[in-house]
Automatic annotation (TrEMBL):
It comes from the Eukaryota. It comes from Sphaeramia orbicularis (orbiculate cardinalfish). Belongs to the chloride channel (TC 2.A.49) family. This is Chloride channel protein. Keywords: CBS domain, Chloride, Endosome, Ion transport, Membrane, Signal, Transmembrane, Transmembrane helix, Transport. SMART domains: CBS. The chain crosses the membrane at residues 100-121, 182-204, 224-244, 256-272, 284-308, 361-383, 395-414, 468-488, 500-519, 547-569. GO terms for molecular function: voltage-gated chloride channel activity.
Length: 793
């Protein structure tokens, strides 16, 4: 300690004399190099921090161990200082409170943006059908709220709202009016799609897709500069509204996770401990992922479980509480905005009145099997389509591709009322439990009889219901096909924001409603069968088709994403009755088991692998019996591993070594080339920054200056240039394994500690290095995949 004080005092004195009494260069060199053994004014990164040290280049993986160590040192320093003065104590309190304040801001900002997106998307979606005469900014529902001329049978028609055919031709009846509405629907769909793709390509290419595969990769420690930046947030928010309003088979729920993470990343720059520490920032991003799902589904608990189950790589206990707090704040913010006008957080809130019976577990499990088969089929078809786009000229014209898909979707969707409506409205319609006041086609039954309360007893299907069932069957086929193409548009060309939650839920909800109506009619006409005896008597409300739709939605989304617990919580939130947990869990688990039989990857993991991101899947088991020596580099046919020695190398030699090994992100430091005894590990970026800074700030550092990684500089001639001490940037405790360490243990070390690289030794001598990319390539080879598909370091 005394040495440090004297050293800083001497440095400050010399600096003052150099300012007050300019010294000739020759004398200045003598002053900086005096005493031969230990220069008095050497720049040591440990004692005099250099800007840029400890940061990471784009498309690189962070060092979790180093980042956590930096945060512990920072916290220890603040704690020690807090005992010395009141100001330091207040600073310690504010540092501890800053995490909760940040969560509050993330929740408020994300909830406000989600409310604005919901309102704008609803308005633009209705604009494809017509316009409100009393204010073009009103959507259809708000426009007719104050109307006194709305009838029960045609509750969506009012004089204040006019279709485009009424505005242009003066009538809403006839073939010409239908054609005018048809053309205007296609026109608005193409316009919204064109604006979305142009904005993404011109201002923020990272605003494409759902963002969840990239968020998962970032949370695992990967750096993608700009992916969570302010331009991405602005363009994603705008184009998400346009994309959803265009009528394409996509949703906004997945992209809302990206939006919330952008908010969190931007707000992190207001707090030093999150701005300067990548590991701490990823704790905030994990909480932001929970916020995104909370505002998407109105389920704060489900959002926290989603972040824990699906996207987070490191999720400590304090992040759990902060995630829940931020998700609650976001949900309350969205509730105060009330974007749907129903005092609910989501559009498809339902209430079921009839309980389910044990016999219905069979159909629920069938829905789970359907969801698993659909999930496996969708993943394979979508990945095959994406690979075809990347390998052919199909993906070279993204604007034309989006317009063609949008036009095709609009042309096919318009004649069918169930494909014309938005995905959220369709799910709400399918979840609906028919009541006495319902005028929907799905409630077109004969011989209506009053059941319990406001619900209806089981009754025979009427012509309206049969028409609706045919339309739903066609909508199911259309949704299954078009979703594969639509979700694939984001890969390769970076052009369009899209989410998968709503389309997958819509497919399952349609299948569930069809099965539910079938079960209802079966019970009505065969109530004397043994499976219905005792619980389904004539005139009773036995089967709830809306419940089947909800179970089917959960099954299909689970088959695609492989979520389980968080998915059940999302859907229980739709009704808030715990008695439906068993059907939902049965269908969801069945869906996961069936889908896993065809491949354990969910859609997001498949897209991570397709894009070549260095993501080490925590759920994937490593079952091969290879050793560390089989995976490490260099191999027997490769050149020797590039290393640095702790003494004896000059600045010029180090620079040449760095330039020749441009693909290395760091270098082991050894005692000598002969002994190969390991001393530490130094990052390439830190070396470059330190050498460049020393040339600017330390007089006399030239290419002939020695680079030393030892604690004390070696003795040298008086006329020799001063050495450059870089011990402060070296990791003195790099993780090492022996050459006979099993790879399953090595993989677990990489997963649980978040390592970038691990050095391989034999009896203390350095043999090689294993990086995360080496492990991913090795796992790809074992799985008979192309190891060169891992694109990034």
């Amino acid at each position: 300690m005394v040495y440090l004080v004297l050293n800083h005092t001497l440095s400050l004195t010399l600096s003052l004399f150099s300012v007050l009494l300019p010294v000739p260069p020759s004398q200045e060199l003598t002053m900086t190099g005096m005493n031969g053994n230990g220069p008095g004014n050497l720049v040591d990164p440990l004692e005099d921090p250099v800007p840029g040290l400890g940061t990471y280049e784009d498309f690189n993986t962070i060092d979790w161990v180093r980042e956590k160590s930096k945060d512990r040192d920072r916290h220890r320093e603040i704690t020690n200082k807090s005992r010395q003065s009141t100001v330091a104590l207040l600073h310690s309190v504010s540092d501890a409170f800053s995490g909760w304040l940040l969560m509050l801001l993330v929740g408020l900002m994300s909830g406000a943006l989600a409310g604005g997106i919901d309102i704008a998307a609803h308005w633009l979606t209705d604009m494809k059908d017509g316009v409100c005469l009393i204010g073009f900014w009103f959507n259809h529902e708000h426009c007719c709220w104050t109307s006194n001329e709305t009838t029960f049978q045609e509750r969506d028609r009012c004089p204040q709202w006019q279709s485009w055919a009424e505005l242009i031709t003066g009538t809403s009846e006839g073939a010409f009016a239908y054609i005018v509405n048809y053309v205007m629907y296609i026109f608005w769909a193409l316009l919204f799609s064109f604006l979305a793709v142009i904005l993404v390509r011109a201002f923020a290419p990272y605003a494409c897709g759902s963002g969840i595969p990239e968020i998962k990769t970032i949370l695992s420690g990967f750096i993608i500069r700009g992916y969570l930046g302010k331009w991405t947030l602005i363009i994603k928010t705008i184009t998400l509204v346009l994309a959803v309003s265009s009528g394409l088979s996509l949703g906004k729920e997945g992209p809302l996770v990206h939006v919330a993470c952008c908010c969190a990343n931007i707000l992190c720059h207001l707090f030093t401990k999150y701005r300067k520490n990548e590991a701490k920032r990823r704790e905030v991003l994990s909480a932001a992922a929970a916020v995104g799902v909370s505002v998407a589904f109105g389920a704060p608990i489900g959002g926290v479980l989603f972040s824990l189950e699906e996207v987070s790589y490191y999720f400590p206990l304090k992040t759990l509480w902060r995630s829940f707090f931020a998700a609650l704040v976001a949900a309350f913010t969205l509730r105060s905005i009330n974007p749907f006008g129903n005092s609910r957080l989501v559009l498809f809130y339902v209430e079921f009145h009839a309980p389910w019976h044990l016999v219905e577990l069979g159909p629920f499990i069938l829905l789970g099997i359907f969801g698993g088969l659909w999930g496996a089929l969708f993943i394979r078809a979508n990945i095959a389509w994406c690979r075809r786009r990347k390998s052919t000229r199909l993906g070279h014209y993204p604007v034309i591709e989006v317009l063609v898909v949008a036009a095709l979707t609009a042309v096919i969707a318009y004649p069918n009322s169930y494909t014309r409506m938005s995905g959220a409205e369709l799910i709400s319609e399918l979840f609906n439990d028919c009541s006495l006041l319902d005028s929907s086609q799905l409630c077109g039954y004969k011989q209506v009889k009053t059941g319990v309360g406001n619900s209806l007893a089981d009754r025979p299907a009427g012509p309206g219901l049969y028409t609706a069932l045919w339309q739903l069957a066609l909508a199911l086929i259309f949704k299954m096909m078009i979703t594969v193409i639509t979700f694939g548009m984001k890969v390769g060309a970076d052009e369009f924001p899209s989410g998968l939650f709503i389309p997958s839920m819509a497919v399952g909800a349609i299948a569930g409603r069809l099965l539910g109506v079938g079960m209802e009619q079966l019970a009505y006409y065969n109530h004397d069968w043994f499976i219905f005896k005792g619980w389904c008597s004539p005139g009773a409300d036995c089967i709830t088709p809306g419940l089947y739709a909800m179970v089917g939605a959960a099954a299909c989304l689970g088959g695609v994403t492989r979520m389980t617990v968080s998915l059940v919580v999302h859907h229980v939130r739709a009704d808030w009755r715990l008695e439906y947990i068993v059907p939902l869990m049965a269908a969801t688990m069945t869906s996961k088991w069936v889908a896993d039989a065809f491949g354990r990857e969910g859609i997001y993991e498949a897209h991570i692998r397709l894009n070549g991101y260095p993501f080490l899947e925590p759920k994937e088991e490593f079952e091969h019996s290879s050793l560390a020596v089989d995976v490490m580099r260099p191999r027997r046919s490769d050149p020797a591993l590039a290393v640095l020695t702790q003494e004896g190398m000059t600045v010029g030699e180090v620079e040449v070594r760095i330039q020749k090994s441009t693909h290395y992100s760091g270098f082991p430091v050894v005692v000598s080339q002969e002994s190969q005894r390991l001393v530490g590990f130094v990052l390439r970026r830190d070396l470059l920054i330190s050498i460049d800074n020393a040339r600017k700030r330390q007089e006399g550092v030239v290419s002939a200056s020695q680079v030393v990684f030892t604690e004390h500089a070696p003795a040298q001639a008086a006329e020799a240039p001063p050495p450059l001490r870089l011990r402060g940037i070296m990791d003195l405790s790099p993780f090492t394994v022996t050459d006979h360490t099993p790879m399953d243990i090595t993989v677990d070390i990489f997963r649980k500690l978040g390592l970038r690289q691990c050095l391989v030794t034999h009896n203390g001598r350095l043999l090689g290095i294993i990086t995360k990319k080496d492990i991913l390539k090795h796992m790809a080879q074992i799985a008979n995949r192309d190891p060169d598909s891992i694109l990034f370091n």
